[in-house]
Amino acid sequence: MRYAELAKRNFKEVWRDPLSLALTIGLPVLMLVVLQALGGADEFFEATSLAPGIALFGFVMLMFSAAMTISRDRESALFSRLLTTPLRSSDFVAGYSVPYLPVAGIQAAVIFGIGVLFGLEVAGSILLVMLVLLLVAILFIALGMIIGALFTFKQVPFAYMVILLLAIFGGAWVDIEAIGGVFKTVGDLFPFAHALAAARDVMLDGAGLGDIAGDLYWVLGYTVVIVGLAVLAFRHRMLE
Amino acid sequence: MSPAIQIAGLSRSFGDVVAVDGIDLSVEPGELFSLLGPNGAGKTTTIKMLCCLLRPTSGTATIMGHDIREDPLAVKRMIAVSPQETAIAEFLNARENLSLMAGLHGIDKVRTRERSDELLEIVGLTDRADERVKKYSGGMKRRLSIAMALVSEPQVLFLDEPTIGLDPQSRRGMWEHIAGLKGDTTIVLTTHYLEEADALADRIAVIDEGTVIALGTPGELKAGLSEAAVTVVEVEHMTDEALACLREIYPVLRTIEGGVEIEADDVSVYAIGDCLRPFGIEIQSAYKRKATLDDVFLELTGKELRE
Ligand SMILES: Nc1ncnc2c1ncn2[C@@H]1O[C@H](COP(=O)(O)OP(=O)(O)OP(=O)(O)O)[C@@H](O)[C@H]1O
Ligand SMILES: [Mg+2]
């Protein structure tokens, strides 16, 4: 369990850096509140339907923040030093990912908390919602690991933009069902639309595990593959 | 006893630059072995290969019997490194930094605590131990960085220029501590400070341009010098022309404050005088002194260790 030592350090680093925390928790919350205030009258802007999408946006922020942390760390002498300790590449992935899970939890809790204040009612099982969100959080954090391991500090924002665009046009916030055609076909190949659909179906329509299984498999499959790739990306970095 | 470190034909290139060029060395358990060489000689590259941070272009090495290419994880269990660059976690305090390294090496809490207290005392950071290291001075960070290599009590310890950037007092303290580890811990130490290698090392490998050009105990290296003596010639002020003339006769020489030092078996004050006189330079004194490792270095490489 050597990764736990690394996770402990990274956890402290995350929590002692108020800026990155404000970014990852504050920004999505701000977005939710602003959109809510702006479009209070419009049904589309209601917190009840917005919350899942905003939570997803929060995880994308988390991905960015994790990627920045790693790419910055990689340039430091401390990272070389960590590479001389008996840590495997999987320990690195775990040690850098785990500290972000509580942040994801707080993010989701705050966002849905505000949603509830604005009248959001969770129709389905809270546990199932948490499961879906956890999976999606891991997926995005692992994406952050890959970006952080492969790109330099300066390149990370560009890689982030690519994922953000993919997420947008892949259906995280654009309704590809409504657009249909190529958008839907291509968008369905990515996990983003499936993630949002699963979260929304449970929250808003009270869907059960069986109803969202199809979407969940997509998310789960991507999560497993992305975590695996993250381990490989770190291994690639361990010996120059 | 089998060697703690066995290096065979170890080489590494970066593009066209051959940083390390076929090094063969063997370090005994408990030995303090020093790599001595000018900037860019390949010391850090060698250490990074031994720590499994860099892949050798060819050749290999074993650490406590584990091959650096075949089994890096086993190697990493044996070693600790103090990198040339200061390597600390800025957001943590000193104690947390030490615990991090101890934890990663699987040291238990009680021992970590003991060892941390001891090391904080040695590097003079006890009073500041609970302060975030971001706020430390450069020298304090440096001291912590070295302590982080010592906390896990490794079998094999790599110290890449450990005392660079330390004030004389801290350097003395560090020397004492390193000397105390001799015998139990196998240590590879790179340095620019000859007095450091001279005082601490059991054996020294002089490295230049990626190859070992001399190997031996400090005494052996000094004894190998021609006549083991250096002639110091003091003059009022030296000119470049006079120096050029001297260099013709005595290729191995260096300028010092207020004169030159010449390394040669046979030094004639008359010959020197003949060189200096046309430029109106008078010899104020000339005497012989015992050779130091600095001289060994100059003779071997034609370079000064420190610029
Ligand atoms: N990552 C790298 N990429 C390209 N060249 C490198 C790299 N690391 C080292 N070198 C080159 O390898 C040679 C040896 O460098 P190295 O750092 O091993 O020297 P050193 O003996 O440690 O010097 P110093 O005393 O200055 O620390 C140098 O010419 C250096 O430019
Ligand atoms: Mg070096």
3D structure, described in words:
The complex is a heterodimer of chains A (240) and B (307). Chain A is an all-alpha fold. Chain A contains 12 helices and no strands. Chain A has helices at 3-15, 18-38, 47-74, 77-83, 89-97, 100-117, 126-150, 156-172, 176-179, 181-187, 191-205, 209-238. In chain A, helix 6 (100-117) packs across helix 7 (126-150) and helix 8 (156-172) packs across helix 11. The radius of gyration of chain A is 18 Å and the shape is globular. By secondary structure, chain B is of the alpha/beta class. Chain B has helices at residues 43-50, 72-78, 94-104, 109-122, 138-150, 168-181, 194-200, 218-223, 240-249, 269-276, 293-301, and strands spanning 5-14, 17-27, 32-36, 58-63, 66-67, 79-82, 156-160, 186-191, 203-208, 211-216, 229-235, 253-256, 259-262, 283-290. In chain B, strand 4 (58-63) and strand 5 (66-67) form a beta hairpin. Chain B is globular and about 70 Å long. The two termini of chain B are 40 Å apart. The chains are: A mainly alpha (240), B alpha/beta (307). The complex binds adenosine-5'-triphosphate and magnesium ion. Magnesium ion (MG) binds at residues 43-44, 84, 160 of chain B.
SSE blueprint and pairings:
The complex is a heterodimer of chains A (240) and B (307).
Chain A: H1 3-15, H2 18-38, H3 47-74, H4 77-83, H5 89-97, H6 100-117, H7 126-150, H8 156-172, H9 176-179, H10 181-187, H11 191-205, H12 209-238
Helix pairs in contact in A: 1-5, 2-3, 2-6, 3-6, 3-7, 3-8, 3-11, 5-12, 6-7, 7-11, 7-12, 8-10, 8-11, 11-12
Chain B: E1 5-14, E2 17-27, E3 32-36, H1 43-50, E4 58-63, E5 66-67, H2 72-78, E6 79-82, H3 94-104, H4 109-122, H5 138-150, E7 156-160, H6 168-181, E8 186-191, H7 194-200, E9 203-208, E10 211-216, H8 218-223, E11 229-235, H9 240-249, E12 253-256, E13 259-262, H10 269-276, E14 283-290, H11 293-301
Parallel strand pairs in B: 3-8, 3-9, 6-7, 7-8
Antiparallel strand pairs in B: 1-2, 1-4, 4-5, 9-10, 11-13, 11-14, 12-13
Helix pairs in contact in B: 3-4, 3-5, 9-10
Adenosine-5'-triphosphate binds at residues 14, 17, 19, 37, 39-45, 84 of chain B.
